[in-house]
Structure formats: structure tokens, C-alpha cells
Amino acid sequence: MPPNAQAGAQSISDSLIAAASAAADAGQSPTKLQEDSTGVLFECDVETTDGGLVKDITVMKKAEKRRLKLVWRNIIAFGYLHLAALYGAYLMVTSAKWQTCILAYFLYVISGLGITAGAHRLWAHRSYKAKWPLRVILVIFNTIAFQDAAYHWARDHRVHHKYSETDADPHNATRGFFFSHVAGCCARSTRR
């Protein structure tokens, strides 16, 4: 039971079921249930009368001033990757053959699949199961994306969801846009 739930109080899911049966018995429109809904994806996850809104989480969301340890391997890799991308864009406009442009687009698409279908949906969220051949293909596609190992990507993404917008979040947006998109990948907090 969540810390701000009241013992013996009717849960949101129970109240919605009661509202739905009352609406069906009274012949009311089904939009009554939508009006009573809190908008929580799974109502049973928030078993409080207020939908969990009383709990003050602003204290948890304040980023502490911390010293960051730079991860030079990532900094050098990101720097090289972006310089190579600029050079590649220049070559694509000035001297690349059309076959090279199609190959570049193909690699772009499969690397996106490696991140979205592989590291994100399959390994981080476990939203589906895949047999061994598909897993191998998705790991290869993920490697082409150059976003670290699928194992590390999924681990960091799970931590990000578990501790979203707190100091434990590796991509804490309360530290600013640069930290959440770049510095979170190029630095580690000294207090972990």
C-alpha cells in the first residue's frame, strides 16, 4: 500500500468498478466512467483517494550540486562521432554516390530499430519476447547505433524510469537540457 493511502478507504479501481456498474444499472452513458477516471494508466497502481497527489515530491526532484567524474572514453567517442558525421554530411553533398546515400539511410533505419525495438522495448521494458535469431539481429543493429552495449542501455533506461527526475536518474532533466542529453552520458556522479 502506498505511504499516503488510507486504511479502509475505497480504492480508485474499486470506485471505478462501482461507478461503472451504477452507470450500467441506471442506464447512464459510458462517458461517466471516463469523467470519473484519474488518468492513471493502471488504476490499481495508485490506490489512494487522491490519486497520489498529496505526496510532496519536489524535495526529491531538486538536483544536488555534485562533482562529476568525466568518462573520457565516451567524450572522445562522442566527439569523434559528431566530427565524422559532419565530415560524412559534407562528403554526401559533394562527392557520394547515390548507392552510398541509400546505404547510409539503411544503416540509419536499422540502427533506430536496434535502439527502439531492441534495447528499449525488448530489453529495457521487456514488452515482448524474441527468439535467439531476432535477439542477435537486434544486438547487431544496436551496435550500429553506437549507443553503448544493449545491456548498459537497458540498465540505464530502467534506472531512469525508476528514479525519474531525481538525483538517482542518470538523465535527470532538473539538471538542465545539456545534462539530460549529453553530460549524463559523458559523466558519472562521484556519489553513487
UniProtKB/TrEMBL annotation:
GO CC aspect terms: cytoplasmic vesicle; endoplasmic reticulum; membrane
Membrane topology (UniProt): Multi-pass membrane protein
GO MF term set: oxidoreductase activity, acting on paired donors, with oxidation of a pair of donors resulting in the reduction of molecular oxygen to two molecules of water
Protein family according to the UniProt entry: Belongs to the fatty acid desaturase type 1 family.
InterPro entries per the UniProt record, alphabetical: Acyl-CoA_DS
Swiss-Prot/TrEMBL cofactor(s): Fe(2+)
Major localization class: membrane
Entry note about domains: The histidine box domains are involved in binding the catalytic metal ions.
Keyword Membrane: yes
Single GO BP term: positive regulation of cell size
Transmembrane segments: 70-90, 102-124
Protein name per Swiss-Prot or TrEMBL: RH21245p
PANTHER family in alphabetical order: ACYL-COA DESATURASE, DESATURASE 1, ISOFORM A-RELATED
Keywords: Fatty acid biosynthesis, Fatty acid metabolism, Lipid biosynthesis, Lipid metabolism, Membrane, Oxidoreductase, Transmembrane, Transmembrane helix
Species this protein is from: Drosophila melanogaster
Compartments, record wording: Membrane
